[in-house]
Amino acid sequence: MSLIEFIKNKVFWKHIGIISIVFISILILVFIGLNFYTRHGSEYQMPNIEGHFVDEMNEIEGMKNFELIVMDSIYTPGEHEGKIISQDPKEGAKVKKGRKVYVIVTSSKGENIPMPNCKDQSVRSAVNQLTNVGLRIGKFIFNIGDFNNVVVGQRYKGRSIDEGMEIQRGEEIDLVVEMNQERYTTDMPNIIGLTEPEAEKKLWEASLNVGNKEFEGKKDIIHSRVVSFYPNNTSVTKGTTISIKFMNDTKPSYKEKAKSFRMAEPVVVEESPTNQIIDDFE
Fold it and tell me: Are the C-beta atoms of residues 106 and 73 closer than 8 Å to each other?
């Protein structure tokens, strides 16, 4: 049989058809297998879980597709334990089913930590050291000297506390600060739009004390943001106590209220805060 006659033979084309069907079937099975293995096409939009509690995850739509991993907990005074304050991936991200979602949550108990050394440091450096390990600033006490804004003492509940001594995370430390008489004012930081921890740290870094805090609506570590503060002068005396008002940023009126806040001109202060002199600091 010649080649041309063989090609024209029905049996030849029948075999070609069978081979083609088998080849296409194999390709389809391979693609199905790859699709199943890589979960291709099963991407889900990551919901916002910040502000919710870990035990609420089963109630949030879409969270059954992911695995929740608690990476860290931060002691937050006034907050219930297990509240999510940070998530990764963020809200809106496209992620595959079964993806691990890493979160940081609040803790109601402060663990014991060694007290850091804040002496002979600038106020900013001391504040960063304390807040980085979960401690807070109670108040600033000023002492007249040759230097400006240098920490010369650290106190806990009225007593000097040395480096390395155990203290519970979340406790307040008073800083004794040396300053000269020529420089006793500081620029008032604009804390509008900041969360409570962010606003507190900004004020502490400026050698200012945190006073009364008013929350319009329920306090929320993530969504409660500063909409006003007082005194609202552009320049204030170091050691001034600042009162803060917060509003939930999910409220429709939040942006308008925050934008309406205005700083006032500085007030001339005759009396220096260095009248809070201490004589027995170590």
Answer: yes
